[in-house]
Specification:
Elements lengths: L1 H16 L1 H30 L10 E8 L5 E2 L3 H9 L4 E15 L6 E8 L3 H5 L5 E2 L14 E4 L1 H6 L11 E4 L2 E8 L12 E4 L14 E6 L5 H18 L1 H4 L2 E7 H6 L3 H32 L1 H9 L4 H37 L14 H27 L3 H7 L4 H41 L9 E7 L8 H15 L7 E5 L9 E4 L1 E2 L11 E7 L3 H5 L3 E4 L4 H6 L3 E5 H7 L9 E3 L5 E7 L14 E5 L7 E7 L4 H15 L4 E7 H8 L1 H35 L1 H9 L4 H30 L15 H27 L3 H7 L1
Parallel strand pairs: 4-9, 6-8, 16-21, 18-20
Antiparallel strand pairs: 1-2, 1-10, 1-11, 3-4, 3-7, 3-10, 5-8, 6-9, 7-8, 12-22, 12-23, 13-22, 14-16, 15-19, 17-20, 18-21, 19-20
Helix pairs in contact: 1-11, 2-9, 2-11, 2-12, 9-12, 9-14, 9-21, 10-13, 11-12, 14-21, 14-23, 14-24, 15-19, 21-24, 22-25, 23-24
């Protein structure tokens, strides 16, 4: 311990004598460690750390699997009951689904809140306990039981000012009084940001083909996922046999909770974790180059210590202690960069992320920073330490510190390190530019309708007044009748699912009167719309017509189809007059419209059907109004019109269509921006490395340059010599990097839209950029070399 403290004191004095070196080395490592810590914090939150107050061990997510396509879907209530009964490997199963609830409070406008309907034992199965009160009892999920509700912690704080008397009080949800039985713990919002939970009541009348629920189960102690899958496969085969109309071609996909929870973000997060690893390697190479230069200057000092009896191992340990100290200081500063980076990431979310997604510095992150700091200290410090203590140290004392052979070896190592930096930067910049070009492609893709000049909002009704479909249909018809004459409204329409919102309803489709088994029916997106919805959205009509007001109100047996559906089922022929069915009545095609993007701009269109909304009667519909003026300024008038019809109706998600389009690409924008930031940091570090190496090389060759100029070499020749050396190293590094990028970017294929992982333009731009910055970084030292006074240079030797 005494020796370690002595080494630390010596290291601090040594760094104090070279403040410039210490500052540059610490700042360089802080950048590398900072971006790695930022990215690890995200990975730790999303992929490693389970959601708050949930015990993930043994949890399994269950989804309906379509064997023909491999697609996954939600679960119907009858299938959920049969899965429970036929799977003894599970000690419990729970089901849940989203429910938009309207909260009514005295003195406040009705407000749509995010609710979840859950089976009674779900929370105990997850391992979640109430912070106040209790969770649901089994008898509270039975038909006819009193209505009860659980409240989220943040709602308890915000709406009820942490009133402990909330348990036992009454809240009005969807027009029905509910008794509050508990408050869930802080940061619990299962499955995302839910604020109210009500118990799921059994309904044996529900259709087996109506899939809308999510299902999760916990394995019994000793049971394996493979056993559970075998049992579920047997159950699904029996259901296929007994219910071919709804279950043919379907099975169960059982996935470990931790794997399923991360969803589609797992791949991009892991790719970016690898990318920031490259940034750290570049930073380490940079500091290693600095240490090589510093070691060359300290060769005489080291030779003296060896001559006085110090062993090589003792000196190497001392030099590694200095490297570790630099790395730890860089790690501490990198923590500050990570905190700032996490704030930027949080600010980029267009909505509140799930409550369990708390980005921050926890024990896992602290251990990561400590491990990375110590690891990088050894990584960038070992080679310079071994090089500094190797070779003929007695010769150093004899000739005053000069040694051409050692200098040549040192120069080759420095060149190799710079080549590595440029190669890694080439890989990172190629990936970053591909991500940016993918985002630009998506952002400029035609969504199939006009984004400008329209505002949208979701309108929801509840209560006994709207128990019947006829009452709900009449209300939404009243809304349109009231909204359309408003000043500034050019057209207005409604649909159950708004494009680019991420929501949709899919169903197997049959055409031209041909009955097709459920397992072989191609899926189509189904929207129920009012008349004028296509006009309000700016949806282009290719041929035929849209619904009339009478057809929309009566739910006439007509349908409008998308262009891709018409081309798929009736290639080269007119779709008008053809018949289509999704399992109910057959409908006649009266029009064909452009494809629209369901999730985000640029996604691959699926067959799309538009049914008249009159026969549907949903509790919630999306209103779209188009105006020649400012669409955002139209929203207050639309709200007032809805309140005048029914003050109890809730209005939510008020956005212009341009805002909806921007929000639909938030994750591509986030990932693209992060990748671009990492690429820019890598470029900065690589340029710094080239400059530092060339500046050091010029300093070492001052005598040679003086001789050349004394013998008649011109300024331009000296500049070309130095720049040529830098460009040769850059060309080798960029060439290696682009070859590596060609292999690495293939892993990004699933993250890119509209651009190939091996896009030639992207590779050419990266090569041109890195070559240009390498020339610039070499030109500055070259200019300094050309200004050398030959007499001064010769005397310096």
């Amino acid at each position: 311990m005494d020796t370690l403290l002595q080494d630390l004191r010596f290291a601090m004095r040594a760094l104090g004598r070279s403040p410039g070196f210490a500052l540059v080395a610490v700042a360089t490592l802080a950048l590398g460690i900072g971006v790695n810590t930022t990215m690890f914090s995200v990975v730790n939150t999303v992929l490693i750390r389970p959601p708050a107050h949930v015990d993930p061990d043994g949890l399994v997510v269950l989804r309906t699997l379509h064997h023909r396509t491999g697609d996954e879907n939600s679960v119907s209530y009858p299938n959920f009951v049969d899965w429970q009964a036929g799977s003894p490997s599970f000690q419990a199963m729970g089901a849940y689904y989203d429910d938009r609830m309207i909260l009514t409070r005295r003195g406040a406008e009705p407000e749509e809140v995010s609710g979840e309907v859950v089976s009674a034992g779900l929370f105990s199965m997850l391992g979640a306990r109430a912070a106040l009160g209790r969770t649901f009892l089994p008898e509270e999920a039975q038909p006819g039981a009193a209505r009860v509700v659980l409240v989220a912690y943040q709602e308890w704080e915000r709406r009820f000012e942490r009133d402990p008397r909330i348990v036992g009080s009454t809240l009005t949800l969807d027009g029905v009084p509910h008794t509050v039985v508990g408050v869930m713990p802080k940061n619990f919002g299962f499955p995302d940001n839910q604020t109210f939970w009500t118990p799921l009541r059994p309904d044996v009348q529900q259709e087996r083909g109506s899939r809308y629920m999510s299902v999760i189960g916990r394995l019994r102690p000793g049971a394996t996922l493979q056993q559970a899958r075998a049992e579920l496969d047997a159950v699904s085969r029996e259901l296929e046999r007994r219910y071919p109309e709804t279950n043919a071609g379907t099975g169960v996909r059982a996935t470990d909770f931790s794997e399923s929870w991360s969803g589609e973000v797992r791949a991009p997060l892991l790719v970016m974790m690898g990318a920031v690893g490259f940034v750290l390697l570049i930073a380490c190479s940079n500091v290693a180059n600095l240490l090589l230069a510093r070691a060359a200057a300290r060769r005489r000092e080291i030779a003296v210590r060896v001559a006085m009896g110090a062993g090589r191992g003792r000196i190497v340990r001392q030099l590694l202690t200095e490297s570790a100290l630099v790395a730890l200081l860089g790690g501490a500063l990198g923590m500050g960069i990570a905190v700032w980076g996490l704030r930027l990431i949080m600010a980029s979310f267009p909505f509140q992320p799930p409550l369990w997604m708390v980005f921050g510095i926890d024990r896992n992150v602290l251990l990561f920073v400590l491990a990375v700091s110590l690891g990088t200290g050894v990584l960038f410090g070992l080679a310079p330490a071994l090089r500094a203590t190797g070779g003929d140290l007695q010769g150093v004392l004899r000739d005053g510190g000069h040694g051409s052979t050692a200098g040549a070896r040192r120069g080759r190592l420095q060149s190799a390190l710079v080549m590595g930096q440029l190669a890694l930067a080439a890989v990172l910049l190629t990936g970053a530019l591909l991500m940016v070009r993918s985002f630009v492609h998506l952002n400029s893709a035609d969504p199939g309708f006009r984004l400008e000049g329209a505002v949208s909002m979701r309108v929801t009704v509840s209560g006994e007044r709207y128990e019947s479909e006829a009452a709900r249909t009449a209300f939404f018809r009243q809304v349109l009748d009231r909204v359309r004459p408003l000043p500034g409204v050019a057209s207005a329409g409604m649909a159950d699912w708004l494009p680019l919102s991420g929501g949709s309803s899919t169903s197997g489709v049959m055409v031209d009167g041909r009955e097709v088994p459920g397992s072989d029916r191609p899926d189509a997106e189904v929207r129920r719309t009012t008349d004028d919805f296509a006009e309000a959205m700016g949806l282009r009509l290719r041929t035929g017509r849209s619904f009339t007001a009478q057809e929309a109100a009566a739910g006439a047996p007509v349908v409008v189809v998308s262009r891709s559906m018409a081309e798929r089922f009736w290639p080269g022929r007119s779709a008008l007059g053809r018949t289509v069915s999704t399992g109910g009545d057959w409908r006649t095609v009266i029009g064909v419209v452009d494809d629209i993007s369901a999730r985000h701009r640029g996604d691959t269109p699926r067959p799309q059907l538009y049914y008249p909304a009159g026969d549907h009667g949903r509790r919630s519909m999306s209103l779209v109004a188009r105006t020649p003026g400012d669409p955002a300024a139209l929203a207050p008038a639309l709200r007032r019109a809805i309140r005048e019809i029914d003050p109890g109706a809730a209005v939510a998600n008020v956005h212009t269509l341009e805002e909806v389009a921007r929000q639909s690409l938030w994750h591509q924008r986030l990932f693209g921006g992060m990748f671009a930031s990492f690429g820019l940091v890598a470029l900065l570090l690589a340029v710094t490395g080239v400059y530092a190496m060339m500046a050091y090389a010029v300093a070492q060759r001052i005598h040679e340059i003086g001789v050349r100029m004394a013998l008649g070499a011109r300024t331009g020749q000296v500049q070309r010599m130095v720049v040529g050396q830098g460009l040769t190293i850059a060309a080798a590094g960029v060439g290696i990097g682009l070859a590596g990028a060609l292999a690495v970017t293939r892993l990004m294929g699933g993250l890119l839209e509209g651009v190939s992982p091996s896009d030639p333009l992207t590779f050419a731009l990266v090569a041109l950029l890195l070559a240009s910055v390498a020339v610039l970084a070499s030109w500055i030292p070259a200019r300094r070399a050309a200004r050398v006074d030959p007499m001064v240079a010769l005397r310096s030797e």
